[in-house]
Amino acid sequence: DAADKGGWSSFMAKEINEQPEAVENTVRGRVVDGLVDIPELSALGDDRLREIDRIIIIACGTASYAGQVGSYAIEQWARIPVEVQLSHEFRYRDPVLSDRTMVISVSQSGETMDTLMAVKYAIERGVTTVSVCNTQSATIPRESDAAVYTHAGPEVAVASTKAFTAQITALYLIGLHLGRVRGTLSAEASAEAVQQFAELPEKMREAVATHEQIAQLAHWMADTRSVLFLGRHVGYPIALEGALKLKEIAYIHAEGFAAGELKHGPIALIDHGQPVFVLVPSPRTAPLMHSKVVSNIQEIRARGARVIAIVEVGDTAVLPYADDVIRLPLADALFEPLLEVVPLQWFALELSTAKGLDVDQPRNLAKSVTVE
Ligand code: G6P
């Protein structure tokens, strides 16, 4: 068993560490002459892809947050409206579907019953179904019109890590493929995204290397009973994912918020010593969002919050207001989530460990939920 963990203390630790390769392997073979080309999507026929006028991403849990991150990129590159729905909610709203709708399911296992039933519902209504899945020949990809596999390798820990970053990667590739086929993606934007993917594994290694700093932080915070996470734009689903990880394996109350929503309610929760992780957008690529998030930090700090800021290296604007600063390598705005989530994964793992819990096998949870 210890050998399976490759010297790591848990499968989750091993899998966090494997993320640079998970992402690299998911991109491999899908970039041709500097352009994203996914053979499984090409097989659907370019005409069919050009006709798509709406995308619905369906998923549960961590996969749904990957879907939310992906929705920003697909809209930006392919200019198709994208919404994300939880699989178990999808059917019950009598969704508006047509033969020009594409439903993209996201599932690590490919066996989650809620998602499978939603996919079957979509198939019955004649929409195009695409499966983003990490498990070869699982039921969901077999039922779908096209399968775009993530190549993260087997994920053992119940709390999903490398499958999540691989899912975001696959959704981005789908966005780039659709953008190319539909002519909405400039050659420049395409080249920039491909370049970002090429640089990503090395940057993710640096994100993984925040482990020691995060372990120290978690050690100090072992008695914490509630943690909040704030993010804007693609940082928002990462805030939700950071909170979910803490609930899953550290059994701590945690909530993620859109930073802009703070003043509409959640700020009332801020009290002396309340830990808040803030995902700070880049001041270079997103100056407007950056300054808004910095003022959010000032607001919560003035009310006593303990601020843990996750920033890009060189961002000094937050220094006067942050109790802890975690620095990540520079990346384009859409690629920041793939780095930002890593310290949050480590934080959940280290807090769980500090509390003496079983990181890989949290109570009441299953890796794959095959009942509705
Ligand atoms: C379970 C797991 C979660 C996972 C969710 C979706 O609830 O505990 O970690 O995110 O299922 O799983 P899937 O295999 O569909 O990605």
TrEMBL record:
It comes from the Bacteria. It is found in: Cytoplasm. Residues 45-184, 217-362 form the SIS domain. Its main location: cytoplasm. Keywords: Aminotransferase, Cytoplasm, Glutamine amidotransferase, Repeat, Transferase. The active site is at 367 (for fru-6p isomerization activity). GO terms for cellular component: cytosol. One of its GO terms (molecular function) is glutamine-fructose-6-phosphate transaminase (isomerizing) activity. GO terms for biological process: carbohydrate metabolic process; fructose 6-phosphate metabolic process; protein N-linked glycosylation; UDP-N-acetylglucosamine metabolic process. It catalyses: D-fructose 6-phosphate + L-glutamine = D-glucosamine 6-phosphate + L-glutamate. Its EC number is 2.6.1.16. The keyword Secreted does not apply. It is an enzyme of class 2 (transferase). Catalyzes the first step in hexosamine metabolism, converting fructose-6P into glucosamine-6P using glutamine as a nitrogen source. Homodimer. This is Glutamine--fructose-6-phosphate aminotransferase [isomerizing]. It comes from Leucobacter edaphi. The lineage of its organism: Bacteria, Bacillati, Actinomycetota, Actinomycetes, Micrococcales. The gene is glmS.
